[in-house]
Prior knowledge:
By secondary structure, the protein is α/β, with parallel strands linked by helices. The protein is built from 12 helices and 9 strands. The strands form 3 sheets. It has a 4-stranded mixed beta sheet. A 3-stranded antiparallel beta sheet has the order 1-2-3, with no helix packed on it. A two-stranded antiparallel ribbon has the order 5-9. It is globular, with a radius of gyration of 22 Å. The mean pLDDT is about 95.
Amino acid sequence: HVIAERGHMKDNPIGTGPFKFQQWARGTRISVVKNKDYFLKDRPYLEGVNTVVIVDPATQLAALRAGRVDMSPQSSTGITARDIETLKKSTPGLVFQQSETLSYFGPTLNFTKEPFKDIRVRKAFFLAYDQPELIRLVAPGDGAPGGIMSASVNWSLPKNELAAVPGLKSVTPQDIDAAKKLLADAGYPNGLSLPYLGRRGPEWERVGVVVGEQVRRAGFNLAIRTVDDPTLFKNLSDHTFDVAHGVYPVGIADPDYYLVYFRSDSPNNSSGYGNKELDSLIDKQARTLNVDERKTVVHDIQRRLLDQFLVRPGFFPIN
Length: 319
């Protein structure tokens, strides 16, 4: 009945959680208040929460120091890892809790059309892509490495194995030579010019620039176009891109929530990769109750996906 009355819940949502929506002032704050009818009678502890929108990193830092905000997230465009080290020395009383997020983003290749239907071109791209360098240049201390899954998740491939995977390791001159040869063998001896669909925002735009410079070494010339999130997500969903800033939100540390992005029938499958054998393995791991047996299948799936060179994470943000 709410949808029938309002048409949507975008501006005035309802829910069943510990807090009730109070106000959304666009670009300024979101306010929620205590739900007195919450099923746990002694919760929530707080009378309300105000989420304040502060775009400028220096202003974020000043607000935290002055006590105008009670907490603030860590990010490479907000309170950074460097800021945290300074705050520990200069601002007593602050409590720091850091954790690696489950979600990730990364350059995603469109498998549904040329030139990336050819695995040689995909491999050449990621032979030149360098995750450690990207983290160092964009998010030092604010981003963690990883593969198809966060390395902090028990289901991930071992870190020593991931460290040897093209795209997840530091690039060598031999990698660049191999990438150029693959491009030439695929019919592009003079390199390849392609559009790159980037995500708007200071951090994400820096990612696009770094990725473009990395793959240029192998002969890929990326023309970067940054767009807002609705445009980006529509292009990812419709497969109307060549190379894009892929987004992979994950809320629960279970393989199902990572592998949904690679099922052939999934609307979340940005790369467009389809493999019935892989679909069967994804179904198999979901039905396998023995943890060790399931982990074996999940590891097999991750290796197959990495071998197909569809996507490589940029990094897993640390908050």
